[in-house]
């Protein structure tokens, strides 16, 4: 009996070990625990994936930040890889999660982090790190002047929260602005209000479509005029729904966008898309290029694109001979209710990927935290219509001086850029973000696609009615797998099939129970047989 | 066509000399055969000019309004990398060139379409930053193959006529490489400086903010005027001869360059071959 028990125990151990080893490599990383000390004798090479806005100064600031950080922490080197598109970072991270070759530090969006988190412990939960006495925000052992926890703007920090925990820290914040050719608005007989309504913008746009006897647009004397160009139709749909207090999604990952308010927005987009008064980046190209060439009146784009906007824009993507001179005004995006404005809060955040060596993760955190220091925050925010994410930087003498010098020159103090930043500073409490969950990035894309499709169909003289909208709902639902998101993200609904490692574990447990049962039952049966 | 015209002329003027005529026919037939063999790797055999039912001629396509549904038949001349069940193609027929942007296609079909393959495409005509293209399209692989010879458009640089070669395989001869430059501060060109603070013959991205693997931009001059050309990574890849040749350009040297006449707010040629003179 003892021998049998020993054999059984051995078998159980082997099976358990096999179970554990089979799960190794597929279950992800262990929980990260903040080390007691940061070992300055251990060297680390950190990989940092960042985004710049095709802006040379931003690249230089990243490079300087790395150099300064490496001087403070000589045992750490940082290698940067620059992207110009968040979606490319997202795609590369997803690809690298499977092979455990993610970067250490990454500029990203919370929507994307929610997808990265499908790998277990892939992204480091920063709650403990941020409040760590020694190495946390403003920690005693941090070798630079970092902001304290309560110096990070709370609205911006909250945006980095996923499932009740912070998986990122904000890096820069922006919103969208409407860059207006005010000269043309006046020439068309309108006065630009402080806060535009959608109706006002569309009315001016339709007036601008009038042509002369030679087929040229009266307002600019050219054969091209697209009065409104929206860069991000994802944002357009999301903000219009928010302004209407209509449904989009909820924190549980329920997809609520397929509603009558969405249809109204599709009709509105199609109506003005059909006349040519409204177009999008995907259909026509960059709003700034048309605006600067006098071929657009309302260019709606991120405040982080302000340096490309206007007659004297420091950055330019068309040949100088195409530039037309006009007065550039900066306004918040149009509103349905000007007394209760709503605009999106966006901009890059920083996440840290988990690694086997906690010291390496701590080094990553220190570098990420360095990006919140005043040196980096102020310098980077001045490159575009960004806003620093800490009150420490926002209230600094240096930053306040920068804001006060708006319009002094057409480069560092370019008026349009500083007015764009000021727009967000003045309206931080009017900003909002959408719920973040695994799949919220796809929902965003779907939101924009509904507008893109409606405009394209209207231009192609298709009928845009209720049946059309329903068909589009069904199409984007399928294209972006929104039905699957809804099913897997909402806790009370069907969770789908178990992952393979879980299945393996359950099978192993069943086998163990069978063996234990046999160990117990066989002697009993033998005993019984002997008695009989 | 020109060869047949010569035959006709010869046969009519030498009506009485049958032997000589036969000899001439023989020589010309041999010459034609030889010329066809010589053009086996190029396009001189010529594309099939007959169009299937419902297929537009190039002229009809160009005359179609933006957003209209169009159907064309053309021979693929270059493929951009496949991604997310989409790919972009340059294609040509006998009369002009097309750009099929983000055409839905499986990776398997993408691999089936080699350069020269004839395809039929139905989609919507669109214009993006001046580039005329077909979007939201469907395709069919058809019988036939033809690779176009590049058209020398050197003399058209700086003229409006260049636009008529949009998307076509083109050739520029005798271009001098200048220090790379970009536009900044509204109305002026700025010379790009590399990490050492020196002028450079090329830069990554349109204003030098990129790194290896991004598009390579360079400035060339002809008859005292500067033009911006690029090697498009998505079209060629960064491990190709042309990408490396662009990285090896030297200021002041003269080169011949072939590529595709892409349009981005004006001529924006995507170069696929660089040859030093």
CATH architecture name of the largest domain in chain A? 3-Layer(aba) Sandwich
**The named CATH superfamily of the largest domain in chain A:** Periplasmic binding protein-like II
Largest interface: A-B, 32 and 26 residues
CATH first level of the largest domain in chain A: which class?
A: Alpha Beta
Radius of gyration of chain B: 22 Å
Quote the CATH topology of the largest domain in chain A.
D-Maltodextrin-Binding Protein, domain 2
Low-confidence stretches of chain B: 1-44
Averaging pLDDT over every residue of chain B, what do you get?
86
Report the span from N to C terminus of chain A: 20 Å
Coarse morphology of chain A: globular
Largest β sheet strand count, sense and barrel closure of chain B: 7 strands, mixed
Provide the CATH superfamily of the largest domain in chain B.
Nucleic acid-binding proteins
Q: Radius of gyration of chain A from the CA trace?
A: 28 Å
Strand residue percentage of chain B: 35-45%
Oligomer: heterodimer
CATH class of the largest domain in chain B: Mainly Beta
What count of helical segments of chain B does DSSP give?
6
Following the backbone from N to C, one meets helices and strands of chain B in this order, namely HHHEEEHEEEEEEEEEHHEE
Low-confidence stretches of chain A: 14-26, 487-499
């Amino acid at each position: 009996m003892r021998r049998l028990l020993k054999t059984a125990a051995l078998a159980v151990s082997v099976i358990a070990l096999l179970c554990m080893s089979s799960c190794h490599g597929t279950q992800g990383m262990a929980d990260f625990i903040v080390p007691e000390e940061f070992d300055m004798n251990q060297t680390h090479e950190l990989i940092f994936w960042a985004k710049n806005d095709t802006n040379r100064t931003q690249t230089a600031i990243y490079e300087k930040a790395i150099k300064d950080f490496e001087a403070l922490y000589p045992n750490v080197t940082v290698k940067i890889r620059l992207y110009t598109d968040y979606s490319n970072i997202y795609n590369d991270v997803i690809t690298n999660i499977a092979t455990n070759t993610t970067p250490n530090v990454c500029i990203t969006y919370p929507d994307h982090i929610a997808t990265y988190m499908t790998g277990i412990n892939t992204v480091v939960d920063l709650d403990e790190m941020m409040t760590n006495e020694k190495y946390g925000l403003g920690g005693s052992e941090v070798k630079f002047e970092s902001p304290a926890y309560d110096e990070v703007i709370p609205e911006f920090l909250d945006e980095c929260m996923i499932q009740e925990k912070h998986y990122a820290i904000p890096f820069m914040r922006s919103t969208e602005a409407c860059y207006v050719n005010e000269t043309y608005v006046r020439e068309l007989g309108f006065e630009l209000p402080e806060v535009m309504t959608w109706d006002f913008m569309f009315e001016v746009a339709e007036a601008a479509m009038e042509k002369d006897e030679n087929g040229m647009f009266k307002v600019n004397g050219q054969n091209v005029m697209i009065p409104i160009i929206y860069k991000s139709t994802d944002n357009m749909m999301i903000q219009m729904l928010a302004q209407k207090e209509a449904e989009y999604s909820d924190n549980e990952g329920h997809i609520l966008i397929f509603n009558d308010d969405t249809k109204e927005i599709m009709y509105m987009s199609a109506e003005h898309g059909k006349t040519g008064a409204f177009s999008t980046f995907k259909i026509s190209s960059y709003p700034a290029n048309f605006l600067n060439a006098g071929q657009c009146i309302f260019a709606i784009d991120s405040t982080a694109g302000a340096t490309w906007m206007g007659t004297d824009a420091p950055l330019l993507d068309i040949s100088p001979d195409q530039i037309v001179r006009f007065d550039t005004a900066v306004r918040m995006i149009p509103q349905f209710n000007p007394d209760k404005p709503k605009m999106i809060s966006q901009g890059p955040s920083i996440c840290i990927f988990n690694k086997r060596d906690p010291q390496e993760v701590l080094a990553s955190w220190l570098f990420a935290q360095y990006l919140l220091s005043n040196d980096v925050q102020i310098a980077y925010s001045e490159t575009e219509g960004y806003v620093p994410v800490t009150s420490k930087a926002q209230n600094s003498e240096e930053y306040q001086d920068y804001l006060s010098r708006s319009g002094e020159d057409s480069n560092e103090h370019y008026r349009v850029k500083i007015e764009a930043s000021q727009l967000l500073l003045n309206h931080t409490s009017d900003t909002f973000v959408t719920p973040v969950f695994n799949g919220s990035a796809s929902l965003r894309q779907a939101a924009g696609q509904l507008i893109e499709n409606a405009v394209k169909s209207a231009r192609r003289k298709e009928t845009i009615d209720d049946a059309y909208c329903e068909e589009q709902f069904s199409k984007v639902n399928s294209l972006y797998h929104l039905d699957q998101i809804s099913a897997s993200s909402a806790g009370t609904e069907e969770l789908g099939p178990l992952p393979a490692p879980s299945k393996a574990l359950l099978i192993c447990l069943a086998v163990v129970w069978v063996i234990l049962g046999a160990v117990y039952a066989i002697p009993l049966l033998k005993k019984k047989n002997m008695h009989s | 066509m020109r060869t047949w015209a010569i035959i006709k002329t010869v046969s009519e003027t030498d009506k009485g000399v049958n032997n000589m005529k036969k000899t001439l026919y023989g020589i010309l037939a041999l010459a034609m055969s030889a010329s066809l063999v010589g053009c086996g790797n190029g396009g001189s055999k010529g594309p099939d000019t007959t169009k299937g039912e419902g297929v537009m001629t190039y002229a009809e396509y160009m005359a179609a309004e933006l957003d209209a549904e169009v159907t064309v038949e053309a021979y693929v001349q270059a493929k951009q990398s496949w991604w997310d069940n989409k790919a972009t193609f340059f294609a040509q027929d006998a009369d002009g060139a097309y750009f099929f942007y983000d055409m839905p296609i499986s990776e398997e079909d993408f691999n089936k379409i080699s350069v020269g393959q004839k395809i039929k495409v139905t989609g919507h005509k669109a214009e993006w930053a001046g580039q005329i293209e077909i979007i939201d399209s469907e395709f069919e692989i058809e019988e036939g193959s033809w690779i176009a010879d590049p058209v020398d458009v050197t003399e058209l640089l700086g003229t409006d006529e260049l636009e008529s070669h949009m998307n076509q395989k083109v050739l520029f001869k005798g271009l001098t490489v200048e220090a790379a430059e970009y536009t900044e501060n509204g109305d002026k060109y700025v010379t790009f400086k590399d990490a050492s603070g020196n002028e450079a013959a090329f830069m990554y991205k349109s204003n030098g903010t990129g790194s290896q693997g991004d598009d390579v931009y360079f400035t060339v001059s002809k008859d005292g005027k500067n033009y911006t050309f690029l090697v498009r990574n998505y079209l060629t890849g960064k491990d190709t001869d042309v990408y490396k040749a662009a990285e090896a350009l030297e200021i002041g040297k003269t080169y011949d360059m072939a590529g595709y006449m892409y349009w981005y707010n004006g001529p924006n040629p995507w170069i696929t071959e660089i040859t030093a003179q």
